Amino acid sequence: METSSMLSSLNEECKSDNYIEPHYKEWYRVAVDTLIEHGLEAYQEFLAKERVADFLAEEEINYILKNVQKVAQSAAHGTDNSYDDTSSSGTYWPIESDVEAPNLDLGWPYVMPGLLGGTHIDLLFHPPRAHLLTIKETIRKMIKEARKVIIFLF
């Protein structure tokens, strides 16, 4: 027998009128980084500077501040096991990844001349106009629909 929770996940009509689709904003990440790295006062200054509303409840802020654990770097990397303040959630260390990078052929794909069509241009606006996707959503959709992706290394 299905529970109402199971049914609500199967049926889109069961969503509350107050339900807000999850979305990502870069300043969310930067604000939380600021809270973790520099404290509550710096977090509030960041929100004021960016002119955005506080998106965390007081309980959430207290929980984050109480439970944050700064990761120590290992001695194998030539450090003294102290936290590196230059790291944040926006920092990526590919050499220290625990997953092997895939061996990708980064050359140009073979293009059959007969399949080349006309140029296609999409004009995107931020913020998006009525009934249009945001730029990030459009890019995600294009990547999902792509037959080949070419990576440029700079």
TrEMBL record:
InterPro entries the record matches = FAM83, SACK1
Query: From what superkingdom does this record's organism come?
Result: Eukaryota
Gene Ontology cellular component list: cytoplasm; membrane
Q: Which Pfam families match?
A: SACK1
Q: Where is the Scaffolding anchor of CK1 domain?
A: 14-150
Gene Ontology biological process terms in this record: signal transduction
Q: Which molecular function terms from Gene Ontology are attached?
A: protein kinase binding
Membership in a protein family: Belongs to the FAM83 family.
Protein name listed in UniProt: Scaffolding anchor of CK1 domain-containing protein
Annotated source species: Marmota monax
Q: What is the lineage of its organism?
A: Eukaryota, Metazoa, Chordata, Craniata, Vertebrata
